[in-house]
Each structure stands twice: as structure tokens, then as C-alpha cells.
Amino acid sequence: MIRLHDVHKSYPTHFGPKEVLRGVDITFMPGEKVGILGRNGAGKSTLLRLIAGVEHPNRGRVERRMSVSWPLGFAGAMHYSISGADNARFLARIYDKPIKETVEFVENFADLGHYFRMPVRTYSSGMTVRLGFSLSLAVQFDCYLVDEAIAVGDSRFAERARAALADLNARASLLLVSHQAETVRAFCKTAAILEDGRLIRYDDLDQAIAAYQAA
Amino acid sequence: MSEVIGPQASLWSCGRIQLRVIGALMLREMGTRFGRDNLGYVWLFLEPMLLGGAIGALHQLSGHALPGGLEPFVFWVIGYIPFYLFRGIVNRAPVGIVGNQSLLYHRRITVFDIMLSRHLLEGAAVGIALAFYIALFGATVDVWPVETAKMVLGMVLMLGLAHGIALLIAAGSVYTELFDRITHLATYLSMGLTGAFFMVFWLPSDMQRAVLTIPTVHCFELVRNGLYGNQVPTHYDVPYVVAWIAALNLLGMAALRKARRHLIV
């Protein structure tokens, strides 16, 4: 379970603090697959970073009672100066996974060819996303935080990512943020809308999408 | 699947995770800083070795005799190498967090782990360089350490001081770029005061009292005492340095904890 209690987040700017989240209260249960819909700049990425614990709220609390992945689909979480294989080794050590198996899994899933042994800084952005996603699958979390960057695209990998996400067993949760209703429909059973710094949860996916598109 | 990742982890398993993380970070730091090209990891200790050797050789060649009949090359090398440790850690502190922010995507990795792993690696590198010179001194001019343990203790205390100061600088750097601008200047200007290049017994007694308020002075004196024994008088107070280390580290950890909440990754 992940529970957010009255989470506020603002960032300092030259024009005073910019409030991004103003009191988010929500609970995600194990196994839930929830889409979070929001326009560009609504605070979706900020919300994922707070849930992941990459950043901390100014006020309120994030409670995690299951293992939560880092936000997937962003450039972060990887080292650019070392190879994909070295990144896999590093994460295997951090998360206490068998090193050889982890490297093999990532190599097969990311399908980067000889780039797997080259520094990440030589990768295209699509390859970086593939590596990041494969790394997170190798670690095995209870809950995956996914940015839409992974779900979009028409590559062979998008299909495999889709299959892998659909395959996550009943225990694994998925929080997917997107500004596209179709993406959320493809992966999620319920949805919430992030607007004006607040998150509104809908039990019914169609109802959520209708409300999002009406807004 | 979630046995150790959740907040339920016991103190024991937290400790195991932290050790694992610090070990992995040290390996990674070696990979990113030195790579696998040309000499690779050898640079880790070759760098302090070359610098220490060059400084020592310059002073040897300049031909000035030292009080107490000390060999100039030996004296300058064992002063410069601990100073290199201190300066290396403190100078790198302002970019310690910025340069490693992407690591913070992994909740298991704390800012403290990042800093500590960098400093331990630096300590190991400088330790190897110092060990090399001690063997060299023994083989060439027959100066063997009287008490190796005291030299090691001096280096460890130096590491503790530098680590504490680095934590404070790293925390401050989250809020302002000021530290990035002035740290190099400050370490450069303070070079003469750290005690790397003078001995306390060279000074008049009121000056001695004054310089002995500086904690690094004790570390250098301890290293010298370990090497020379009673050949020259040395002045140091281990509990005094330990108190400094405790204060700097506690303040540093508290500051870092606060800064982490404001860090924008």
C-alpha cells in the first residue's frame, strides 16, 4: 500500500514559490493499476518523484508499505559515463540481486546489441528508456511508477514493455502518469485526475476519462 | 519480494543495506572517476604519489635543512600526502551531491552514503600512496616508521575531520553556490595553517598554543610521531581531535538531513 497524506510541494522560483501540489490525499492498494491523468505541467512528474522518494514534500507525508520503483521513463536513475552492463551490475549490488542473472536479463530484455557494453551517454533517448525499464524489471518491485514516455512509441520495445506491464502479476501495482487518455485505458483499471494541485480519484475508468476530456 | 525494501526493515538489515550500498558506490566511483582505459585504477593512488613526490623532490633539491636534522624529502612527503587527503575531500565536497544526483532516484542510496563512499575511496587511495613512500623511505634512506599504528591513526583522524567538513559543505551547497566558489580559495589559503609544512616545536610557545587549537595540526604531528618516534618532539591530543570529529560529523549529518528535504533532483 502507498498512502499520501495531505502532500504539498512547491518549488522556489524568481517569482516566489510555485505551488505544484496543494494537498494530495490518496491511497493505492497492492495490485491496483491506476492511471493518473493530467495536462502538461499539472505536476504528474512531481507526484511520481514524491511517491518514489526522490524528492520530499514540503508538507504532508508519503507512506510506503511496499517496494516502489524509481520513476521510469525519465533520464535519471542511470549513469551516463558507464555502460548499460555496468549500470546493471551496480543496481544488482544496490538491490541485492544476483549480478550475473541481472546483467543477462537486462541484456536480453533491453535488446541494445553491442551498445549494452558502451557508455550510456552514447545511447539514443529511446535506448536509454529501454535500459531504464529493463533495469527496473530486473530489480522486481511491488509497485512500478511509470511515466508515459515508456508507453508511447511504436517500436518493437513498446510492445514488449506493454506485454511486460500487462504481465505484472496480480500482486504488482502500477501507477502510470499520462496526458493521454488512450494510454491510461491501455494499461489501467482505474484512474485519477491531477488538476490544480489536487488529485481526484474515480473508481470507474470511463467516468474518469470523460471528466478529463470534458475539463 | 518486499522483505527488505519496505520501511519495516530492522536496524540490522538497514545496516546491511547501507554497507552493500556503500560498497557498490565505491566500485562505481572507481569506474566513473578512473575508468578502464590506459592506467585506469592505478591513477587512484598514482596521482597523490606523483604530487607528494614532486613536492618532496622540489624541497630536497632546494637544499634547505630542517630543524632536528630531518630528511627534507621525507618530511615534505609525509606532510603533503595527508594534506592531499584533506584538500581532496574538502574541495570535492561542493559538487558531491550535484554530480551524483541521479543516484538519488534509488531510495536506498542516501546522500550520506554517496559522500562517505567517495571519502573512503579517497582515503584508500592516499593510504596506498603513503604506504608506498614509507616502503621507499625504508629501502633508500633507512627511515622506518617507529609506530605505524600512530601514522594510520593520524590518517584516519584526518579522514574523519575532512569527512565532517565535507558533509557541512555539501549540505550548504544545496542552498547556495557560494561554497562552490570559495572552497578552493579557502583550502588554498589555509594550507599554511593546517600544519602540513611546519612542526609545532619549531614555534615559540604562545604560537604553539595557538596552532594547537587547529585540529588538523594534531593529525600531522601524530603521523610524524609515528614515523620519527622520539627523534623530534611532537605535540598532539587525540581526544581533542576526536571531539572535533564528533562535532563536525554530527552537525554535518544534521545539516545534510535537512538539506535533503529541500534538494531538487
From TrEMBL, chain A:
Pfam families: ABC_tran. One of its GO terms (cellular component) is membrane. One of its GO terms (molecular function) is ATP binding. PROSITE patterns: ABC_TRANSPORTER_2. InterPro entries: AAA+_ATPase (IPR003593), ABC_transporter-like_ATP-bd (IPR003439), ABC_transpr_TagH-like (IPR015860), Bact_Polysacc_Export_ATP-bd (IPR050683), P-loop_NTPase (IPR027417). Keywords: ATP-binding, Nucleotide-binding, Transport. Residues 2-214 form the ABC transporter domain. It comes from the Bacteria. The keyword Nucleotide-binding applies. Belongs to the ABC transporter superfamily. This is ABC transporter ATP-binding protein. It comes from Roseicella frigidaeris.
